[in-house]
Amino acid sequence: MKFINIFLCSVLVMFISVSCVTNKAQTGAAAGAAGGALIGQAIGHNTGATLIGGAVGAMFGYVIGNEMDKADRAQLNQTYETSPSYQTTQWVNPDSGNEYSVTPKPAYREASTGNNCREAEILTTIDGKAEKTVATACRINGRWVIQ
Description:
The chain has helices at residues 2-18, 24-44, 47-82; strands spanning 89-92, 99-104, 108-109, 116-126, 129-140, 143-146. The protein is an alpha+beta fold and 147 residues long. It folds into two domains: 2-68, no CATH class; 85-146.
């Protein structure tokens, strides 16, 4: 009985911590760990099975969450690379429903590094909440990297 109480408290802490993480990969890892731990406990009925289930769930959750982030980063990179200055590019992530609107400015060469850089205004809408940021990305090894 003591183990079950500890386990349930641990699961509760994992679910609460999901709200504190900062990106989809971390959210996926936390949710995957919680789900995997529950499945591991249900199948194995011991601490080892719970820990293994949590670890496997965290790994799969991280990979799935990271792939969603990669799709948005790839679209952002494409916008920096090909969109004309002051022309807005918009997309909606089909998995998350997050909306993006990116308006790049003209490219320039950064004096200290010699890299081509570009500033862009990015409007992101997540769960109905819009947030506007201005980000500068520089082309490094063929990819636009946000500075």
